[in-house]
Amino acid sequence: MYGKATAITSPNIALIKYWGNRDERLMLPNNSSISMTLGDELTTKTKVIFDSKQDKDQFYINGKLQDLSDKETMERFAVINKIRSIAGTNAKVLISSENSFPTSAGLASSASGIAAMVLASTKALDLKLDSRELSIIAKVGSGSACRSLFGGFVKWERGQKADGTDSYARQIAGHEHWPELVDIVAVVSDSKKKVSSRAGMRQTVKSSLLYKARPEWAENMCVKLEDAILKKDFGTLAEITMKDSSNLHAVMLDTYPSLMYLNDTSKEIMYKIAELNESEGKPVAAYTFDAGANANIITRKGDADKVMEMLSQVASIKEIRKTGIGKGPRFIEES
Ligand code: PMV
Q1: Are residues 153 and 242 in the same domain?
Q2: Ligand 1, atom 3, residue with closest C-alpha
Q3: Which protein residues touch ligand 1 with a CB less than 6 Å away?
Q4: pLDDT in tens, 259-294
Q5: Is the pLDDT of residue 107 over 70?
Q6: Does the predicted TM-score (pTM) go above 0.85?
Q7: 238 lies in the same domain as 256
Q8: Of 108, 143, 174, at which residue does a domain stop?
Q9: What does the pLDDT look like over 203-226, one tens digit per residue?
């Protein structure tokens, strides 16, 4: 058999983060999370070719052949085995994935990469799966990947069931709902993170005392944030986003051994945003940090110049990328 497809996806930035599982095998999270999918300025393009004439799997990221016996790569590659078993094929696969942004530095490259891999693979094998089934497969590779299967604002439901059938991603609102929103990515470090998200969150769940309060709080914040998104209430969105980022990094620090993903530049950005909001008398920008030092700053078009001006004062920022809310995945034809 032979089948190929190419998908383009974008990373998503969680405003309420996923960190920790109630069931790691099925990737069932301890709390729901909400993200916005980023625009076309940051994309992952993944080409997948299944070919039963090939004798081995090959996986390239930005032209570099990946070691499929590496633990982290194996975890991510599990989605391919799952898709092969659904399709009833053992054809080998060639995957080539390219990011237009730094890989593994807290810019959610795994989310867009795995989402693109799932979409291209299921299309190449002509599988007709709905978005709920796709999101259940994607999160096996990386939890946050299920949120990159959609554009706009997306919620990954925690769910209640032990079999995980009610834990999947769904769109809250499309990209056209709030086009004034802007995401400014400040690249502070382009080096690979020392502890992967999966290993880090496992350690937090096991050892952090403060983490015990997080799931219920985050669950409640998801309800408030969804409402704020639907009402386009920027002040509430900004406050919840910054509180959740700080709560996440507090439980990371409270993990044993401690996880410290932020660096001095990240902290300087936090101070600068707080100063800007103070001087404006209301939140006009919100920072959020994943498992990395890079900042995502959410603001509105009318305030973006002020944020850019403020960031220009932080000398150690390596690169700034401005993007908006993305439409979500698409397929392209490639020879
Ligand atoms: O999906 P993973 O395993 O890469 O973990 C994502 C963890 C965070 O980026 C910190 C939070 C999130 O919800 O995206």
Answers
A1: no
A2: 142
A3: 14, 17-19, 33, 108, 110-111, 142-144, 197-198, 290-291
A4: 999 999 999 999 999 999 999 999 999 999 999 999
A5: no
A6: yes
A7: yes
A8: 174
A9: 999 999 999 999 999 999 999 999
Q: Is residue 329 part of a domain?
A: no
Does residue 169 sit in the same domain as residue 188? no
Q: Which of 10, 16, 18, 31 to mutate to test the pocket of ligand 1 (most atoms within 8 A of CB)?
A: 18
Determine the distance separating the centroid of ligand 1 and the alpha carbon of 3, expressed in angstroms. Answer: 31
Q: Please enumerate, as own/partner, the contacts of 74-80 that have beta carbons within 8 Å and a separation of 24 or more.
A: 75/141, 75/198, 76/110, 76/113, 76/114, 76/141, 76/142, 77/141, 78/140, 78/141, 79/114, 79/117, 79/118, 79/121, 79/137, 79/138, 79/140, 79/141, 80/117, 80/121
Tell me the residue range of the domain where 277 lies. 181-323
Same domain, 13 and 138: yes
- Residue that is written with structure tokens 């990469």 in the block: 113
Distance 19 CA to ligand 1 centre (A): 7
Say if residues 193 and 292 touch (Cβ distance below 8 Å): yes
The verdict on 25 and 167 lying in the same domain is yes
The residue whose CA is least distant from atom 5 of ligand 1 is 197
Q: Same structural domain for residues 275 and 150?
A: no
Give the tens place of pLDDT for each residue, 233-249: 999 999 999 999 999 99
Domain end position, chosen among 174, 201, 224: 174
| d(CA 13, ligand 1 centre) in Å | 9
